[in-house]
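Researcher: Let's try something more involved. This one mixes different molecule types, so please make sure each is placed in the same coordinate frame as the others.
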Amino acid sequence: MSGNSFGTLFKITTWGESHGLGIGVVIDGCPPQIPLNEKIIQNMLDRRKPGGSVASTSRKEPDEAIIMSGVFNGVTTGTPVMIMIKNKDPHSDAYKKYADIFRPGHGDISYHAKYGTRDWRGGGRASARETVARVAAGAVAKALLDKENISICAYTVELGCIKAIERNLDVVSKNMFFCPDNDAAVDMEKRVKEVKSKGDSLGGIVEIVAKGVPAGLGEPVFDKLDADLAKALMSIGAVKGIEIGAGFKAPLLLGSENNDPITPEGFSTNNAGGILAGISNGDNIIIRVAVKPIPSISIEQNTIDMSKKERTISISGRHDISAIPRINVVCESMVSLVLADHLLRQRALR
Amino acid sequence: MSGNSFGTLFKITTWGESHGLGIGVVIDGCPPQIPLNEKIIQNMLDRRKPGGSVASTSRKEPDEAIIMSGVFNGVTTGTPVMIMIKNKDPHSDAYKKYADIFRPGHGDISYHAKYGTRDWRGGGRASARETVARVAAGAVAKALLDKENISICAYTVELGCIKAIERNLDVVSKNMFFCPDNDAAVDMEKRVKEVKSKGDSLGGIVEIVAKGVPAGLGEPVFDKLDADLAKALMSIGAVKGIEIGAGFKAPLLLGSENNDPITPEGFSTNNAGGILAGISNGDNIIIRVAVKPIPSISIEQNTIDMSKKERTISISGRHDISAIPRINVVCESMVSLVLADHLLRQRALR
Amino acid sequence: MSGNSFGTLFKITTWGESHGLGIGVVIDGCPPQIPLNEKIIQNMLDRRKPGGSVASTSRKEPDEAIIMSGVFNGVTTGTPVMIMIKNKDPHSDAYKKYADIFRPGHGDISYHAKYGTRDWRGGGRASARETVARVAAGAVAKALLDKENISICAYTVELGCIKAIERNLDVVSKNMFFCPDNDAAVDMEKRVKEVKSKGDSLGGIVEIVAKGVPAGLGEPVFDKLDADLAKALMSIGAVKGIEIGAGFKAPLLLGSENNDPITPEGFSTNNAGGILAGISNGDNIIIRVAVKPIPSISIEQNTIDMSKKERTISISGRHDISAIPRINVVCESMVSLVLADHLLRQRALR
Amino acid sequence: MSGNSFGTLFKITTWGESHGLGIGVVIDGCPPQIPLNEKIIQNMLDRRKPGGSVASTSRKEPDEAIIMSGVFNGVTTGTPVMIMIKNKDPHSDAYKKYADIFRPGHGDISYHAKYGTRDWRGGGRASARETVARVAAGAVAKALLDKENISICAYTVELGCIKAIERNLDVVSKNMFFCPDNDAAVDMEKRVKEVKSKGDSLGGIVEIVAKGVPAGLGEPVFDKLDADLAKALMSIGAVKGIEIGAGFKAPLLLGSENNDPITPEGFSTNNAGGILAGISNGDNIIIRVAVKPIPSISIEQNTIDMSKKERTISISGRHDISAIPRINVVCESMVSLVLADHLLRQRALR
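Model: All components are placed in one shared frame. Result:
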């Protein structure tokens, strides 16, 4: 129990279900005197909002953030910042027919095993909608990191087997898939439309880069920076894999190839992904996450119901074809939260 | 600071440096009346001991575990179990020449940035030797899991670009690389010898399978079972990537291919790797970790010293050519620790 | 930072300021299938509401609890329960005149030292109004304890030097001071009126008894049951002292007098207050807390302002004359939270 | 379970039993570059050692501290500091006769209820001997606080009904009871001898003052500085009550008497005990703890055994007549640990 908090000093606790009254987050440990208002949060939330791309659901959620506490006269006070987003367009009735069936690829069956009960409306707490709270918190973490000139950017490097060849971060915000390769983005759109028409879904890979992270963040031996980043990102529902720097390519290299030579100007290469022995080394932090295809598909699937009887299911509700690109800002938020937390932890050392 | 603890209820705290007086672990939260003695721990430690394969260091450490507390009349009492392993064969002098140089691929430079000081003897706290404490704790976790018929096994599926084709777990303990494919193990040995003769090093991939895990372990939304596993494994020094189930293959699949159909007898496939929405689903849990090549190589490398002057370094001390296979039992231990912790967390629910 | 959470498994995180949009609590770790609705919470909140006695403020707060998440079909789901109470009647303008003055006995000066900024409206986060969140959470803890036949009752044993002689728990709810001695309650009312007319304030002593607590709750050596109770109660703003069982009388006894003899039927006396070596022994748990007089008084006091200049202050806002009896249900709630948490921790042992 | 850790950033985890191989503590989170050696720790331990006064046991324990990790070249490295004290003179046989009996006033009966098993040798983990680890950790905390000119002193203000009238801290180290009143100390010695001759035991009151604590330490709302101090001190076995500042006298005062007037030079009085709204206000922090009489007495007592049969017991082993004065340095250590932790937590804010 009690797994809904994240962080040690910059600590967040989220609450809410997909079709309940709302979703929110308490940020406990944000330093005082950080400029904060609803617009700052809204800008991040808007990047996660449904409707941004052909890949996303038709559910209409304005996702309006309300700061309920912790801000006075435009700055944080040091006390808990609670941000709430009300649910406006749930359509719970559409889920009634699945109330006694376990949807394949979803947490229905595992939640049932865990709790013996579950809120079946829109996936309840297991819905990707919970990530709205992560993004709201991420916006606050970013406000803190901004002051230290640390920036984080997540972008799509693969979607439905279409790979981005270029890494042009300038075009990331210029296409609907937050892809650093405009040509690839065009192909991605085609691929999404094609799969959508068949009632199927897609996965992909998101890369996150953090720039300006000072050397020295991360704690030996369990709370290593990469360990905390791995947890942060793997805790996002659709993520099935994480790699830092060379990642799964590292096993293919010799030590003499994988080691990053050190020069007075910095590292010659960055196979380490900016982290050595779990502590940031001053170079860019680079992470990639594998995102599985959305499990909700209209293609018929075999499953069972709560009485263990065989059933088939075809899911016709409103959902994304791919978690990408809406998941990108969620990844960015989780990385921001980890960095904000370790920044504060490191301050305590001095 | 204070990142040397792991777990919520089955909680461990490790201490010690490579060349200090010893290494150890306090296990706080082990239930009472679990049969435990030094032999149970020693059996696990022996699997990590140097000298088991051509890939490992010539450092001679008997790695004898002493149970200092928490066990009375052959069973745990519920109070902290402290297990200590003294360092017997450090040879610190061999490291003196590197005291002011940052070894590429090592934590020397990041530790220095973090603390402004560091114990340079054998890598200090950043040495892979710290994992001896993880294995000692893992042995205790395994003793607890045994009672629930949960078993965990780690094996080598890739080493120096040699892939295991078979997954015959019966042969894992029969070759020096803990490889489930005896033919591949023969090729791995050749590869290791070849690279060793050149003063270089290798990486690989370890797969871990946990069988008998009941459905329902894992906590939404941050302490998901896979999130905690990812952190646990990424906290091992040499690990640069983690994947669960289909992992980085999942983005290549359609939703209709990736979803595991559910039948009254269980799941037809296991792309989920035994975890849905962060909670175990009763199927085998399957994880793979990418292990980077050992950074200590005798081939000359470019680096800098503490005064930021250019230097070259050729590391001639005693070290492994590859973290595999000694890392395997460390992976097994970390997975055991996560499962033991979540098992206790789930008990509190009932 | 991040001190707004309490508990290990039954964990709460509170947020909100006296004059912000509202106050609330996230309860993370409540087991599933506990019957819960707003009425259960409201009943507890009503006992804390202003206006119940001559000692309390004229601020009109309906204190209506809204369950925002974690409850479905009348029972908890195992996911976070967020309970929110909106602020309806703040009157912040009344506090503007104190915005740059440090009120004696209040946290104004220490908050300013800590954060360099503060929400001066009604005391902000330091206001006793934050306890509304504790009581909402306490109601949920009580719902859990009810199932185990554990009951907790707090009552006034001293107010403004008037001591309750009797301990008749049946009359506690029958007088406005929640006093187990009706005659003393009459004297307390007189005393309160007299002091109120002089613009001064009063303190007192609250006793809390927990019945039906099974032996075995509490964790050696730091998370002892009495240690966690002491923290829980001392964290309430007005509390300046805690004693368990014989408490400050214990130093006056000989060991032969203080030890509680054990018989097959239980303990002959209860100087231990139901706790031995930090673990419940099955007897009633008995605690007393010293409550200081309310610091807001209309009598003129010497103080300084933010520029360190001498000032006088006479506080004429709406406040209680005494934290008792409104604090009683807060004490009851904090004890309930500790017991619920340790109950779950003990379950994990089995 | 897992209640053997204390602190958030300056975090300690203790292990060991009275008659096991040893007792120790892992300090995780001590900043780097703090001068530390075994002599610093030994000086604190020597103040806790048996044999210092007529009130203490005849058990001969040299209590030699060994620093096992975390210190290199005379300073802390930022990694865990493990300090171990071996048990040299246990005499476990003397306890065999009590193996199946519950000693009144001891944790035997509650440990048995909790764990279903217990290490009966010298009280096992419940022995006051566990406090040796607290003192070793306290010495490290003090080394950190010294750098900030924060000093902590504990002294006896009451023993066996003999009260110290004076508060002359200069004489505290000059009499065997660490009493700030030499005349009272003479009376205390008489009282102890008298009670000792009757086979009975005594309790008393210890006062702790912390000077030089900067304003701003402590976290709203649960991790208040006084709340954490209350937990820290109540977690010491023999403590049954805690009061801060005016404490249990506060309920006897009017608000106008209890409030500490603020002047440009500081507070005119210190009823708050240096803490307002849970945050240090810059004044001296003053705490008193009620210490119960030692439960081990040779006078015959009624009790039961593990089969619930009536028994009598007369405890003839080696034990103190009073926990005071050996407990004083334990109190001092716990206060030091809390302050060190909150000092680091506050640093993270800036």
